[in-house]
Amino acid sequence: MLESVYPLYLANEAVQPNTDLEVADKYTGEVAARVALADAAMIDQAIGAAVHAAEPMRKLPPYERQRVLNHCVARFTERADELAMLLCIEAGKPIKDSRGEVTRLIDTFRIAAEESVRIGGEVMNLEISPRARGYRGMFKRVPIGPCSFISPFNFPLNLAAHKVAPAIAAGCPFVLKPASRTPIGALIIGEVLAETDLPKGAFSILPCRRDGADLFTTDDRLKLLSFTGSPAVGWDLKARAGKKKVVLELGGNAACVVDADADLTDAVERIVVGAFYQSGQSCISVQRVLVHERLYETLRERLVEATRALLMGDPKDEDTFIGPMISQGEAERLESWITSAVKAGGKLLCGGRRDGAMLEATLLQDVPRDQPICAQEAFGPVAVLSRFSNFQDALDEVNNSVFGLQAGIFTRDIYKIQQAWDELEVGGVVIGDVPSWRVDNMPYGGVKDSGLGREGVRFAMDEMTEIRNLVIRTPTK
After folding, report:
1. Which residues have C-beta within 8 Å of that of residue 384, sequence separation ≥ 6?
2. Which of 77, 182, 387, 401 is the most buried (most CB within 10 A)?
3. Where are the alpha helices (DSSP H) in 183-294?
């Protein structure tokens, strides 16, 4: 169970200046714990400490970075049950999904431990013309310096891990602002890091109000800002970030295409998971389902049946599949989008009822594409069905979005697979599965309004390092 009070972490140390942030049990609505909040002075102090830690972190041998990361793997494994229950309470995530996220947390740190000793470079042949005779070149990757991280509420452990673990592996000190609705998972990461002998100032984990977090974005001492969250916030942060490098992992309205040769049983099973896993609160949740007209009626019937069978309730119950959304306000927003879609001519196939923060798994069809439920990011347990007759038209419809994070394609045609990979304007194409699938070592990120840059441990490390070139001239007679 949760402790009643949690400190923040300032320059590697637990600090308890107050207990001003209340963290609710997302199912009961009751206060589950109280967390320390950082003020602007603390954030400034943390950034200064990260600046002082930049040189010691750069000089920390790779095997020492690996040792820190392996310590985290061991401790998270020991505390796996505690971490899962923590997620269940602070995020309202069903317990089975919570255990899955803890597994991914451990995977992410384990991958980072492996990558920490692989940072290399390349020897280059510069003698490409007579003027370069006698020159040789090589480059290496060096840490970018102090980093600023802002993580979201929906994967409080693993999305924080996707910033923290690569930073340690790359040798970058950091300051992290976790989501104020779900800060405790990140603070447990801080608690474990505080058990290590990372250089003083290597990390600070600072819950704070959004209006007090401006330094995370604007302070020029920080060399990289990595933000995961909503597009509106992310692009605003980029506009105010100044000269620092910016990595944005933003939203989406991910599409899944089911072509005529798909295995219907398999497609239905995967779409149900992809659309309604953790109440659809994922930026790659299945939101748009495009089905070939030959399969449409059958798939719709099976999908409705499978969706209605999902159990909604207490996330601590082993059988629960649909838990609460992060807040009643978010559930009310999505309920209003469903109502708007039906008024505009869409048909409600199942679900749609709300009780507080609980919203039933919902399927719609024939919704005009300009409705928010199609055009914007739903970020909840809703998916919209439509039909197509031509595969090219389906690809065009996937691209008919301001977003471009991932897409899923159910087809066995190798030529259509290549066509989708060539033409879809997304960061990743998943064949034979839903766009919601991700493993933590693959490059992950989007295009258009879905963001900039890539995560996935090795690729995040590339973002957190810079190339330093070396040219050597051998005089010739």
Report:
1. 287, 288, 289, 341, 346, 363, 364, 365, 367, 373, 374
2. 182
3. 184-193, 215-218, 231-240, 264-276
Instruction: Give me the DSSP letters along 71-100.
Output: HHHHHHHHTHHHHHHHHHHHH---HHHHHH
Please compute the mean of the pLDDT values over residues 246-259 and round it to a whole number.
97
Of the candidates 178, 208, 1, the one whose C-alpha atom is nearest the C-alpha of residue 87 is: 1
- Report the DSSP beta bridge partners of residue 175: 148, 204
Instruction: Point out which residues pair with 259 in neighbouring strands.
Output: none
Question: Is the separation of the CB atoms in 272 and 381 below 8 Å?
Answer: no
pLDDT exceeds cutoff 70 at 1: no
pTM (2 d.p.): 0.96
Nearest to 38 by CA among 177, 219, 226: 177
Asked if the model's pLDDT at residue 58 lies above 70, the reply is yes
Dihedral sign of CA atoms 109, 111, 113, 118 in order: negative
**Secondary structure of 192-216 as H, E, C letters:** HHCCCCCCCCCEEECCCCHHHCCHH
Residue carrying the six token digits 């994967």: 155
Catalytic residue among 283, 374, 455, 463: 283
Of these residues, 90, 101, 115, 249, which one is catalytic? 249
Query: How far apart (Å, rounded) are the C-alpha atoms in residues 379 and 447?
Result: 18
Q: Is the four-CA dihedral 335, 341, 345, 348 of positive or negative sign?
A: negative
Gap between the terminal Cα atoms of the chain: 76
Quick one: pLDDT at residue 330? 97
Asked whether the predicted pLDDT for residue 459 surpasses 80, the reply is: yes
**Catalytic: 350?**
no
Q: 362-384: b or e for each residue (b if 16 or more CB lie within 10 Å)?
A: bbbbebeeebbbbbbbbbbbbbb
CA distance linking residue 150 with residue 163, whole number of Å: 9
Torsion of CA 363, 365, 367, 372, to 10 degrees: 20
Query: What is the three-state SS of 387-450?
Result: EECCHHHHHHHHHCCCEECEEEEECCCHHHHHHHHHHCCCCEEEECCCCCCCCCCCCECCEECC
Cα separation values, 222 from 43, 193, 209, 216, 217, Å = 12, 21, 20, 8, 8
Residue 152 has φ and ψ, to the nearest 5°, of: -95, 180
Give CA–CA dist 15/34, Å, rounded. Answer: 13
Residues 6+ apart with CB under 8 A from 447: 404, 425, 426, 427
CA distance 236 to 98: 31
Q: What would you report as the CA-atom Rg of the chain, rounded to the nearest whole angstrom? A: 24
Tens-digit pLDDT profile for residues 67-85: 999 999 999 999 999 999 9
